[in-house]
Specification:
Blueprint (H helix, E strand, L loop, with lengths): L1 H9 L3 E4 L11 H15 L4 E5 L5 H13 L4 E4 L8 H15 L3 E5 L8 H4 L10 H7 L4 E6 L4 H11 L7 E4 L3 H9 L4 E2 L8 H12 L3 H21 L3 H11 L16 H14 L3
Parallel strand pairs: 1-2, 2-3, 3-4, 4-5, 5-6, 6-7
Helix pairs in contact: 3-4, 9-10, 10-12
Length: 283
């Protein structure tokens, strides 16, 4: 509950529970629902709560979506089945069946594992226009947002222009941090997925408020002061999620060890992380 309170007190308005950072892929369905239920109950309407219902099969995902709605989630995050699916039509069928089965808002997400599928990696390219499959995905009832973890600035621009904005069918959330959103914001993206804010939410909120008010220079100062060094050091470990847990532990918040096969940061990583945090003023 400490982390839920940290986000609420830090001004975070929306949270995705048991996502990639939460290691949903290493949880049993029962464990995942315990976490989602706990956050939804603690938030009690003070944040929009989106439960991660990604699963390896469509019917399995539908059951999780139903449970997320039952425990009070405002929406769910869904990936294409992360082991296999039958091309674009299989992916769209997956989302359509979920939308038909449960009336709840859906965030679509091409996770890191899904990005490795040729059908998805072929879509995530700079074509100067949005692929038809993305337009079809956004047109599915209940699909109201899409999380982009590609890191491809051209792709991000193309899909934001096509499906985001005041009259768009779905919000496009970049998940490569604040610097990525500076780019997306220019083209109409309304939101983004935090990185730094998993541990320091107030910094992310300040950045978003500056950018939203037109103070792009102030927003860039925050990116340059905190995020660039933070991403450089954490990504260099090859254990990004482990870095977040380490920082939470250092700040007296519940982080804990990684679940196998993911590994915890080693002593050299810890030294570099702490040096970065002190250098930037994060700690």
């Amino acid at each position: 509950m400490k982390i839920t309170d940290l986000f609420i007190e830090g001004g975070i308005e929306n949270v995705i529970v048991a996502g990639s950072t939460g290691e949903f892929f290493s949880m049993s369905d029962e464990e995942r629902m315990l976490v989602i239920k706990a956050v939804a109950g603690r938030a009690a309407g003070r944040m929009t709560v989106i439960g991660c219902a990604a699963h390896s099969g469509t019917h399995l995902a539908i059951e999780l979506v139903k449970k997320c709605k039952d425990v009070g989630c405002d929406g769910v995050m869904i990936t294409p089945p992360y082991y296999s699916f039958s091309g674009v039509e299989g992916m769209l069928t997956h989302f359509r069946m979920i939308s038909d089965a449960v009336d709840i808002g859906i965030v679509g997400y091409f996770s890191g594992s899904v990005l490795r599928f040729p059908v998805v990696s072929g879509m995530v390219s700079e074509e100067w226009s949005c692929p038809q499959a993305m337009l079809d995905l956004a047109a599915i009832p209940n699909v109201g947002a899409f999380k982009d973890a590609s890191g491809n600035y051209g792709w991000h621009r193309d899909i934001v222009r096509a499906i985001d904005g005041p009259d768009g069918e779905a919000a496009v959330m970049g998940s490569d941090g604040m610097g990525y959103h500076v780019w997306g914001h220019k083209y109409g993206s309304r939101c983004y997925l935090t990185g730094l804010g998993n541990v320091w939410p107030k910094i992310e909120v300040e950045f978003f408020e500056k950018l939203d008010s037109g103070d792009e220079s102030g927003a860039l100062d925050i990116v340059n002061t905190y995020e660039l060094d933070y991403l450089r050091v954490t990504k260099a470990t090859g254990k990004y999620w482990s870095c977040l847990k380490f920082f939470l532990d250092e700040l007296g918040l519940p982080g804990g060890p990684m679940r196998p096969p993911l590994l915890d940061v080693d002593e050299a990583d810890k030294k570099n992380l702490l040096a970065m945090a002190k250098r930037t003023g994060l700690m």
